[in-house]
Specification:
It is a single chain. The chain has 184 residues and is mainly α. The protein has five helices and no strands. The chain folds into two domains: 105 residues, no CATH class; 60 residues. This is HAMP domain-containing protein. Keywords: Membrane, Transmembrane, Transmembrane helix.
Length: 184
Amino acid sequence: MTADKFKRKLVNLNVKRRLQLWLLIRIGGIIILTSIISALILYGYARHETIDTFYQAHIKIRRVSDLLLPVVLSGSAISLISGALLALFLPQKIAGPLYRIEQELNKVKAGDFRTKIRLRTKDTLVNFTSQINDTIATVDQRLSDMQKAMNSIDNIESLPQDTREKLDDVKRLLNDCKTTLNNH
């Protein structure tokens, strides 16, 4: 395999398209909502008539930034709050399924290859779990095939002594493979 085959693209929306779309919609929605709220705050401050108030209070405005400071602070506060909410709740949609996958994989690690990882249908990693389940099923099938081969070797008693010794060596190697697969 060449390095060109796996060249990294800056934006690749074809990889896990649904997950990327889900994240983009949520993050984009927060950005748009924050922009609208900031614009409404700016519009609310801009609508007030300030000329009479400034003449009555004898206040001299030195910079336009003095007028815009409350608007900027309000917009920043709204952005900060919405960003914090996004940072708090968005990872939950991914962390919950990852936690469940991890718990089920611990069962597989302990040797239970009949485990099926199940998530809610609306969870973001449902396709990933089906791939993991297929992999676990394949490993389970291969272990079953190895067990059948070992049982067939056990049933061969009528062979000459030297052949049985070689088969015992093969059986020992298969047991080592099985033990290695179960321990790792």
